[in-house]
Structures are given as structure tokens and as C-alpha cells.
Sequence to fold (133 residues):
Amino acid sequence: MPDILLATDADRILDEVDAALADTDTIVRRVRSGLDVRPAIEEQQPDLVVLDLQTGNMGGMATCHGLRLEEGAGRLPHQPVLMLLDRDDDLFLARRSKADGWLIKPLDSFRLRRAAEAIMAGDTFFEERRQPV
Fold:
């Protein structure tokens, strides 16, 4: 059963991720802070970590950097990470985060599912620019 860990303090993001990814075979667990990601991973290693860029006092970028540092030091196994960006201008930071993929908000179920499935399969998914509405 795939396990997805979501770090966000926004209920709207939880609702969108849960609606797109949770089903009878997939669970979505939530933590409200980037600081809670590592303990949640140590408790039960997820198949995918989804990080909201703007989350409390330790956002997605810092959380992803922290995970990659822990992996490099051999203290954590590799964690597939999908970053949720707020705008096109965040692409510069996202490229430096070493995330396995990212999406630019607003989210939709189709893009979110496609990105999550690609990353959980060992691929990457990088959305470079959101298409104008």
C-alpha cells in the first residue's frame, strides 16, 4: 500500500492532495511543519514526500535540503520528494532543492497524480512553467 507523507499547514492543500492521491490502496499522512517530516519518516518510511513550499517556520525548500543532507550523511535512505511551488519565480529555488520533482500551484488532480506516479516509479517530474489560464 503506497504511503504518501504531506507537509503542509494549509488545509486546502491537504484536501487537494488527498482527493488526487488517496484511494483504497494509497494513504496520505500529514504533518503541519517541516520540522515534523524527519520524525514522520523515521516512524514509517513513505513512498513519497510531498512538501508545500510555504509551510510554517521550516518550508519545503529547507525541509528538502535537510533530507538531502541527512541522506548524504547516511542517516536516512533516499526519500522521493515532490515540491509544491507557489509561482513560476520559485523555479530557481526548486532547481537547487534537489527535489525529484515539482509542480506549480494551482494544483489539479491530473498533474498531481501524474507527478506522484512518476516519482514513485523512480523517475522525475519537473514542471517548468505553468500554462497561462
In short: Residues 72 and 120 are 20 Å apart (CA to CA).
